[in-house]
Structure formats: C-alpha cells, structure tokens
Design brief:
The chain has five helices and six strands; from the N terminus they run H-E-H-E-H-E-E-H-E-E-H. By secondary structure, it is of the alpha/beta class. The strands form two sheets. Strands 1-2-3-5 form a four-stranded parallel sheet, with helices on both faces.
C-alpha cells in the first residue's frame, strides 16, 4: 500500500476540519479543535476491515481526537461487516467524516452505506458512489434467474442489478 496515497493534503485536512467544525457547532459543541484520526478503508469490506475500523474508532476516542476521517475506496463487500461498521459509526462519540478519495476512488455497494452512515459525507473530484446492494455469502446455492424485463423495475431489460445480487425477501430469493 502506498503511504502517500492515504496522506491527505493540508488543504484537504483544513477543509474537512472546517466541515466537522461547522457540524459540531451546529449540534452545540463548546469548542472545536484538536486532531483528527485518519482511518483508510481501501479494498473489499470484510471481517478484518470491520475489526480495524471499530478498533480505530475506539483508539481515536481514547486519544482525544476531535473527529475521525474515513477515507473510502472500496468496491463493496460483505453485508455483516458493513453493518458492523455502520453500527460503530452511529454509536461513535466522535463525529465521523466519510471521504471518498483519492480521485478515481469509489464507495460502491457496502461503501455507499458506510458513507451514508457518516456524520459528514464528502467526495473528492472524479470519485463515485453507488451500486448499493451488499450481499451475503451462502444462501440457497441456486443462481438467480434473469429478471423479466416486463416485470417492472424500469422494464428496460438491464439485468445487472438484481440478477447478480439477491436481497432477502426479494422475488429472486422466493423463486430459488
């Protein structure tokens, strides 16, 4: 992993500090200052990522950091790991800034929900987010059937969304 890739520029850190400061002032904080913990989420979301983020949030709180910046570049990952990260963010005593970076990065699938759970969400230029359907490993073992283009959900014949991912309680799961 390239260390320079995760080191924010001073202007970026100043911007994120200002954003978090305004957010803190909006909820009645008395003072804004201190340092920010930088937690990189780079690669697929799994149990190791979840453990790292939860541990890092706790360390930031113990060290007295003013807020946390999650730098996000992920194609997504496991539903359970994503849920653990989201719960840790929502339970955090510190404000969490989700920042999709560097340019060209993405917060896809599980990364989208992690960004949504953050108290402040920001994106670097030329980044993207989307394809927000985390999946579970396992299941019935049967491959999902292609979606009927006439069955709704846009009816445009695009089978990339639900034919590749099954949601609990979805029509695809009931057919299997």
């Amino acid at each position: 992993m390239d260390a320079a890739r995760h080191r924010p520029k001073r202007s970026l850190l100043a911007l994120l500090t200002a954003i978090a400061g305004f957010w803190l002032l909006g909820i009645g904080a008395q003072t804004v200052g201190g340092s920010a913990a930088l937690i990189p989420i780079d690669g697929p979301i799994g149990p190791a990522t979840s453990s790292f983020v939860k541990r890092s949030l706790e360390e930031a709180r113990e060290q007295g950091d003013a807020f946390v910046v999650l730098t996000i570049d992920t194609p997504g990952g496991l539903d359970t790991a994503m849920r653990e990260i989201v719960q840790a963010i929502l339970a955090s005593d510190l404000p969490v800034v989700g920042y999709v970076s560097p340019g060209g990065a993405r917060a896809a699938s599980a990364g989208t929900f992690i960004l949504y759970a953050s108290h402040v969400a920001a994106m670097a230029p030329a980044t993207n987010l989307g394809a927000a359907t985390p999946v579970q490993i396992g299941g019935s073992g049967a491959a999902p059937a292609p979606r009927d283009a006439d069955a709704g959900e846009g009816g445009n014949g695009d089978q990339t969304d639900r034919s590749e991912k099954a949601e609990p309680g979805s029509a695809l799961e009931r057919k299997a």
